[in-house]
UniProtKB/TrEMBL annotation:
A single cellular component GO annotation: cytosol
Pathway participation: Protein biosynthesis; polypeptide chain elongation
Translation elongation factor P/YeiP central domain ranges (all copies): 68-122
Name of the protein in its database record: Elongation factor P
Keyword Protein biosynthesis tagged: yes
Matching SMART domains: EFP (SM01185), Elong-fact-P_C (SM00841)
Swiss-Prot/TrEMBL keywords: Cytoplasm, Elongation factor, Protein biosynthesis
Localisation per UniProt entry: Cytoplasm
Organism: Streptomyces halstedii
UniProt GO MF annotations: translation elongation factor activity
HAMAP family reported in the protein's UniProt record: EF_P (MF_00141)
Annotated function: Involved in peptide bond synthesis. Stimulates efficient translation and peptide-bond synthesis on native or reconstituted 70S ribosomes in vitro. Probably functions indirectly by altering the affinity of the ribosome for aminoacyl-tRNA, thus increasing their reactivity as acceptors for peptidyl transferase.
GO annotation terms (biological process): peptide biosynthetic process
Similarity comment: family membership: Belongs to the elongation factor P family.
Length: 188
């Protein structure tokens, strides 16, 4: 349990019958008239939905302890992603739903942060940017290079993104894992 006065960004609260909500932002408000309160923006840990919620100042709220550990992606086993704890070498099978969009950027050997609550995997978080190899892309047309256009490219994970015309098959590029955008070439 924690008081609303102890709220901070990233703290996970257990509200509404056990749902987990992460504090995105908070603001202590002391109006000229009436009691003080705390205005918060909360994000549901599982669904990603955000809501605004107001608490009276000093009210006790239940907190949840989320265990985050860095694990290495080993391989796919049917619909499950198998991660290995690099300290204990224990393997953890994670459902595709918990991996979410991170599946578009996971390659064997990548390290990801796996968040668990009471032994259940909540989500998998990748670094903000990863380096991936372009598996296939059409060659750029000679006259198009100056327009700054883009073309589709299939990454080694099978995910397709838009890349500049000068990118060729086999090149390593940097990709933003939050948006799926091309960030730049990786110089070898």
């Amino acid at each position: 349990m924690a008081s609303t006065n102890d709220l901070k960004n990233g703290l996970v609260l257990k509200l509404d019958g056990g749902q987990l909500w992460s504090v995105v932002e908070f603001q202590h408000v002391k109006p000229g008239k009436g009691p003080a309160f705390v205005r918060t923006k909360l994000k549901n840990v599982l669904s990603g939905k955000t809501v605004d919620k107001t608490f009276n100042a000093g009210v006790k709220v239940e907190t949840a302890t989320i265990d985050r550990s860095d694990m290495q992606f080993s391989y796919m086993d049917g619909e499950y992603f198998v991660f290995m704890d690099m300290d204990t070498y224990d393997q953890l099978m994670v459902d595709r739903k918990a991996v979410g969009d991170a599946a578009n950027f996971l390659v064997e050997g990548f390290t990801a942060s796996v968040a668990q609550y009471e032994g259940e995997v909540l989500y998998v978080e990748l670094p903000a940017a990863v380096e991936l190899t372009v598996q296939h892309t059409e060659p750029g047309v000679q006259g198009d290079r100056s327009t700054g256009g883009s073309k589709p490219a299939t990454l080694e994970t099978g995910y397709e993104i838009g890349v500049p015309l000068f990118i060729t098959t086999g090149e390593k590029i940097k990709v933003d894992t939050r948006t799926g955008d091309y960030l730049g070439r990786v110089n070898s």
